[in-house]
Amino acid sequence: MENRLYTILVYTENTAGLLSQVSAVFTRRQINIESISASYSSIKGVHKYTITTYTDEKSVVKVVKQIEKKVDVLQAHYFTDDEIFYHEIALFKISTPELEDNPNISKVIRSHGGSIVEVNSVYSVVKKGGLSEEITSLYNELQETGCIFQFVRSGRIAITKSNVERVNEFILEREQKHRKHSGCKE
Questions:
Q1: pLDDT digits 0-9 by tens, 79-137
Q2: DSSP single-letter state for residue 162
Q3: Are residues 23 and 29 in contact, defined by beta-carbon separation less than 8 angstroms?
Q4: What are phi and psi of 155, to 5 degrees?
Q5: By CB count within 10 A, which of 36, 129, 175, 184 is most buried?
Q6: Right CATH number for 4-79 from 3.40.50.2300, 3.30.70.260, 3.30.420.40, 3.30.930.10?
Q7: Separation of alpha carbons 112 and 54, rounded Å
Q8: What would the CATH number be for the domain defined by 85-153?
Q9: CB count, 10 Å around CB of 55?
Q10: Beta bridge partners of 86
Q11: How far apart are CA 70 and CA 56, in angstroms?
């Protein structure tokens, strides 16, 4: 089977140690996590992990099934790039004297859709959001000028192209079952 990049979206309760349990699933299968991002979701009390990995479909299916077995995981799904909207963000700390002395640096930043968000006499901070390839391209061009002091990029964040958020349906069904079950006791 062919390896390709998969994005796995995991919806969880906010429980300490859950990230460790999720990463252990990858470790046991000897599958590397390329990036991971964790944040609140649009649903109160539900967190969302966005994990990317290069693997084959058979393996990603097994990983997702194992992740869903974790007690505090509500749902997990895997997606290919054509099924989601995704983005990353990067920050570059660059030399302000280099920026001032070389007008090409500012031109490169603008041509890549980056923006300067902080300037002082020693360094400037550039922010760039976009696809991984776009961020890498800006990095490579700035690296050629020798102006980069520091560089950091986020993991991928993603939302599905579907009109329906599957976890919303899951939570609604769970609440309906809970109400139905609670009603039976009274």
A1: 999 999 999 999 999 999 999 999 999 999 999 999 999 999 999 999 999 999 999 99
A2: S
A3: no
A4: -75, 170
A5: 36
A6: 3.30.70.260
A7: 27
A8: 3.30.70.1150
A9: 24
A10: 158
A11: 22
